Every structure is written in C-alpha cells, then in structure tokens.
Amino acid sequence: MTAHDHANCIDRALAEAERICSQRGARLTPLRRQVLEEIWRNHEAVKAYDLIHRLSGSEHTTKPPTVYRALDFLLEHGLIHRIESLNAYVGCDHPEAHHDPVLFLCERCGDVREARHAGLIAILDEMAATQGFTIAHRTLELRGRCTRCQSPDDKDHARPPADLP
Amino acid sequence: MTAHDHANCIDRALAEAERICSQRGARLTPLRRQVLEEIWRNHEAVKAYDLIHRLSGSEHTTKPPTVYRALDFLLEHGLIHRIESLNAYVGCDHPEAHHDPVLFLCERCGDVREARHAGLIAILDEMAATQGFTIAHRTLELRGRCTRCQSPDDKDHARPPADLP
DNA sequence: TAATCCTACGTTATAAAGTAACAATAGAAC
DNA sequence: GTTCTATTGTTACTTTATAACGTAGGATTA
Ligand SMILES: [Zn+2]
Ligand SMILES: [Zn+2]
Ligand SMILES: [Zn+2]
Ligand SMILES: [Zn+2]
Fold first, then answer.
1. Does B147 lie at the interface with A, CB-CB under 8 angstroms?
2. What is the pTM (predicted TM-score) of this model?
3. C-alpha–C-alpha distance, residues A145 and B102, integer Å
C-alpha cells in the first residue's frame, strides 16, 4: 500500500461495518468488532492463529472456535475476504455490496490490495457459460511483487522476520 | 467430466509425464509415478491424505513427507495443479508448457476441469501493470456446478459420501 | 573396485489450520 | 420475570503440512 493515513482506513472500515450491520439487523458484537479491528491494523494478510494470539492476553486466552466464528460472521457479511492461497484474511475495501475481488498479494511485504474489473468477470462468466458451468464463487488471487517491492534488494519495508518462538 | 474412456486419460497423462521428465533429465521414480497415477484415477480433486491412505497397504504405511515430496516434484514439473481453495490436487491436462489455468470446481460431484483463456490473462496482466504489480503466480478457481450437476435433485453422479471411519 | 557424492526415500516428531460437540451466558421477546 | 435464542466459552479432536535427521541406492571419480 502506498503511504497513507491508515487511521482513516481503520475508522472508515469500522464505521462502514457498524452501518452495514445495523442496517441488516446483524450484531457487530465487541468480539467481532475487535477481530475486525485487528484485521485492519494494516493492509497485510492476517492469519487466524495470529488473531488468536493477539486476542489472548496473559490472563484471558482466546480459543480457535472463538476467532473462527467471528471470522465466519465477518465473511458472511462481506466485511473481510478470505485469501485461499495463504489461509489468511484481509479487510474488504468495499463491503457495501457482495463481490469476488481480484486480490494482489505481495510476497515480499505481505500487503494485499483488492481490485475489481467488470470485463474480467464477464470473461469468466462466458467461459463458464460455454461449458454449462454455474459459478457460485470465484477465487482470484495474484501472487507477486507490489509497486514498492520491485527492487529486489531494497529492504526498507520488507516484512519483518516471523516472530521468534 | 463428460463420459469418456478414462483409461485413455490415464495412459496419455503417464506417457506425457514420462516423456517430459526424460526430456528434462528428471526422474519419474516408481513412487512419483504411482502418486501421479492415483491422482489421475479420475477427474476429481485429490487430497494429500487420501493419497497417503491409498498408498498405505496393510503392511507398508506411507508417511506424509513421502507423499508431499512426490507432490512437490509433480507440481514443480507442472504435471499436476494444486487447488488452493480445496487443499487438493488434480492432474494437469497440458503439462508440456507451464501455465496458470482457470479451474472449474464442481461442488456437487467434485470434478475439476481446467481451461485457459488468453484474453483473461491479458486483462490480469493489464490490471497488474496499471498498479506496477509484477505477477509471479495466478490462482484462478471457480466453484459451482458443472453441466451434469445443474439439476439440484438428480443424484445420479453425486459424489459418494465420504469414506466411513 | 572402493571411496565419494548426491538424490530420493524412510522415520519421528511437531507445527499450523480448522471443526465438532456441548456448556454457560447474555440479549431479545414475551 | 421468564422463556427463548444468539453468542461466547471450553474441551477435545481432525486435517493439513513441515522440520530434522537417518538410510539406501545409483552415479562419479580416484
Ligand atoms: Zn490503510
Ligand atoms: Zn510489497
Ligand atoms: Zn494444466
Ligand atoms: Zn458435477
């Protein structure tokens, strides 16, 4: 992601989520809101078990089902996307209407960016139609390097090494 | 998949694999060949642990690393595709040249069909180019219903219930 | 031929990702 | 307030995948 005021992203995402949920009579409980907030901490793909660790204080430990249920809720309401090729999740940029985005996954910095393209969907629909296939869901993920990660040896914003055990 | 002489598919796939490997100086060992053969038993997505069970006779038990290494070899040489959204694998129809196919996954019968479309790839490349993204790999998977599985209550070729424990 | 090297395969152990089943609790509805 | 339902907690487990190291066999070389 290009440099930006990320606090804005977070505020906007949470406000949108509140709005959408109240509009649908769905309950964005504190837990669900907290998970969404953690996912929006940055624009990187987030793993379920990272969420579990982040939500587990030294006292209170959060168990897998707790997080997975929150993720299910957020997925159902289109507030996040699941990244199949990474077993990870990312906040949705445009949650107001359902969509299957193209996800650009930077394998250097971990950032995820979503895009949509009507012509692309049209081609997929046409491919499906010619063989009588009915599409229920599209998984469209592109792995590679984002703009900022083109130069192979620039270490400025490379993903930090994984947490030590 | 439409009705067809599947023995042909298997023969062709194995012959192609032999040809490609020998041409590249890669060794299609008995184990790797056996895994490929199991994957080609039909046109369905195959799970790694199913392969482990299939290769484990009552005496000789095959361990995960054995199968995963064979899968890695087959993936490297483009003889199979990994299906990210299913954690499963399927034989490649056209292994002679590298490609990232569109995979049509029938959620009723489990069949997988691969397709390619130059215009689609062009659009993805163009989307990437406009944001300075360099694509290394594409995951394109469409979940839904194949031609034969359009009528919701036709049970003729529904996937059998999972193996009992 | 024997020493060597390298690749593939075997084995043990463990990590990472996800779910089933049931109990406890907190909101909403009555 | 009581009942009902949705949400969260908890225990246990399944599925998927990898790390680390040992072994065997074929090719290469001395
Ligand atoms: Zn941001
Ligand atoms: Zn990047
Ligand atoms: Zn293919
Ligand atoms: Zn089908």
1. yes
2. 0.92
3. 21
